[in-house]
Design brief:
heterodimer; A: alpha/beta; seven-stranded mixed β-sheet; 29 helices; 13 strands; B: 357 residues; 11 helices; 35% helix
Amino acid sequence: MENPFKKRANELFQDDEAFLSVVSPEPLRFFLRKRAEEGQLYDRLVVILGTPGSGKTTLARVFEYSTIRTALANQSVNKSVIAALSACHAVEGEPLHSRFLGARISLESDYREIWELPYSEEIRTGLLTTLVQARAVLAWNRKLDATAHGESAVLPKPDSEGALELIGGDLEGLVARARNVEKAVYQVLTALVPPDISQMPKDAVAGFRAFDAIAGFAIGPLQDRVLLHPLIIFDDAHVLHPTQYSIFERWLARRELKLARWILSRLDIFSPQSTLNFLSSEGDSQPAGLKESREMTVILLQGGGGSSRQTQRTAFRSMARDMSSRYLRKMPIFNDRNLTELASLLSTEEKPIPKTHLKELDTAVKAASERLSISSKVLQRLSLEVDTFLSGRPDKLSDIRSAMLLVMMHRHANRIPQGSLFQTDEELEPTRKVEAGTDIIDAARIFLHHRYSRPYYFGFNAVCDASNDNVEQFLHLCANLLEISSTKLIRNKSAVLDAETQTKVLKETASDMIKKWNFPQHREVKILIAKIASRCLAESLSPNAWLGPGANAFGVMDDEFEQFLQNDSLLSRTLHYASAYNAVSLVRNYQCQGKTWCLIELGGIPTLNYGLTLKRGGFLKSSVKELDGFLRD
Amino acid sequence: MPRWENCIFHRADEAEAFVKAYFCGKSVAYIAGGGFDPRAPAFCKLLSSAKPKLVNAHLLRERRPQDIKSLLADAEANIKIIASCVTSVHSYDVNIFAQDNAVVGGFELLRHFQQVDLSKYDDIVVDVSAVSKGQSFTLVRFLLLKYPQKNIHVFLFSSTGTDRRIREVANEKVLPIKGYEAGYTLDENASTAKLWLPQLIDDQHDILSRIFAAVNPHDVCPIIPFPSRDPRLGDSLISEYRVEIEDQWQLRSDDILYSAENNPLDLYQSLLRLDKARKLVFGENGSVMILSPLGSKATAVGAMMAAIERNFPVVYCESYGYDVDTGVIGNPSISDLIHIWLSGDAYHAETAVSENA
């Protein structure tokens, strides 16, 4: 079987049962449950935004009628997904059944082309809404057909019986009419020479107001009818023209529409200013024109949504654990050997650097102590500090110890005040005591990684953190790790990957992914992240490691960034696409040293590629001018 | 009978001889690419040597978001050469992408040519050597529709070596070429048996993967060039794509279509035969063949002809830009020249092309 980690779930697993076996219910609980409990998920327009690979389509597919039916048909196997659906109020009753007839339509084909036709905005909007409604009816019908409901009926809204008659009357008539309407609009938009308005097919211009007429669907025999509320999910809405998208969104947000309707979109659809504003908040603000209200719910996958970044990171790790287990169970080479926990395949055991390098390091420590005039008494004290800190820890290794000592000596030297010519070091105390801590051990690690190629990226949490809470990124990183692991199994070796192999594979994968970037402005994004990474690395490797584990971000004064957002520029467009495609993350209102910053944090993949820390918070002070200069050089 | 059963087709020296003999004294609308490709001015020079009465050039300058300055300079140089060979030059900027990165090149191209009257010319020559497939396919279909009785010729310098040195940086969106939608996204065709025929060229794994995911075919039949100038090309392609062939597409050894690299008619005829065979099994509307002409331009022309005749959808990823290895691109040679006479005096007067997708 093809490695499932290499494909998106909804592409690889066409079959609903196979799909359900790999889908994790965690995103439903994390992103949708609260909204469902607050009644904000089904009675108004819901806009779900996310970067590529954040799981939008997978999430939508779970809510499709056929998927829910399949899940309910085997409740013992799909317990966790059903529980999540129940928590999201998508299933109800005894026995459990779906509340909704959910269907997904991708807006990738045909709709954007309508905007290029030589007609007025009104006519183009009419063609768009007509086509969308026709296809929604056809999508619902396909779901009903696929689940072999012999007796199904469409229910009109109260006082809309006449409107339903006009568009077909019963379900069969409605579907036939929808097919004709779809074909008619399609003829117009695919014509090499668009017809005059007077020559347009009648079905294309007469309108097809299914959303205004339909209240729901009834399925099953008369004595045992189940009512299904319509849910339509419009995927890939970012493909629409921005004006087209705004019109579409406004049209769907109308309060008189009673069906459940969701839009899934990337952030590209919004202006750079809007996107940057939105992405850089903790979910408080939305893109201009996209205001959360009684008419609209906005949900941001992968960041924002009102949760702290740490909470999201924790939630993602949980989801990743669940998802990776499901995927491993699909790989016989692992499943047959009961190797279904990814964490167990990624060793966190550390080994010190080779003896020759260790000797070199110890020599460097000695040389530093002489150069910095560290007395033997101070050195002893610092060594005791390190030993006490490392006592009982699994990473109590000689190379870490020496590297920590090196950092602490530099810190000590920096903190010694200027004394008189006749004073010795022993008489001077540092302005602040140098203490061993996690920041120093992190600093030691990154130093050893760059100086002696000591493994740096290993363990399940590292893979999760490098994924930027993005499912696709996580799967991509895992795919290459598991290729190696499976090869080892074939050769009758242990499947567990050591730290060195993990570091090598993760870095190579990241490098390869960056090479393959081809989104808009990718060249400028590569230049920008290379420059940021270069400076961050230089500071991360400073002898006194003043940033602890190091930096992986630039910080710009928040009010300066706010000003910058008002104007269109090469930098704003570059940051727009950089953040929309996970090359960077923006963190507004970051408090540090009594000031408020906007952090431009490198994404997980660039971080891996350039060998920077995956820990958050370390940044270098910068300015819009400096960032702009990177692109102009 | 297939429309181009008795197609007038010339190659290499025969093509050169045809040009010199046929175009003498003719008035010609010459449509070509005004881009960086070194093949851009090559045919024009040959055409002018035939001493036609009049050659008015309509040059398409395809604009992409990641146009490289050095390539723009090469394009200017090519336009100058073309201008020196023809009576007049009209240049049209064709923005392939809109501001929001939607692919709109086909629409822009059609907007230009709807306003141009080519009926006064004896012949319309479309030189696709330096025109991307996304534009040339649309253009040819439009011309056949608008001027059904006119002499319409397609010329190209087909050099797979050059094609492989001009690498497309593909946009991620998979879509049909304008004019070749053929209804494959319509609901009435949702349950038809889909056969996808990608033309293979090296190092296009990502694009093939994207198109495969978007098309979601029931079967795949890759097109591999054979015979080809490089006799081992077919083997190396099969080797390169073995993961796709074995795992993703799950093919057997006889699920591959071999097509002569420099003879468009070979692929054209093969596709028509395949379509006929499938109709016997699936009925008139039970099957759809979806083409993806990623490979050489010569075989792409064959795919185009089959798509026009039988209304096949043609699906691709538009290029966002190009990575060009200009250092090793040689000048085009007459041995690479191909001519196909698509419509006009050489064919039956009632032949017409259907516009309907």
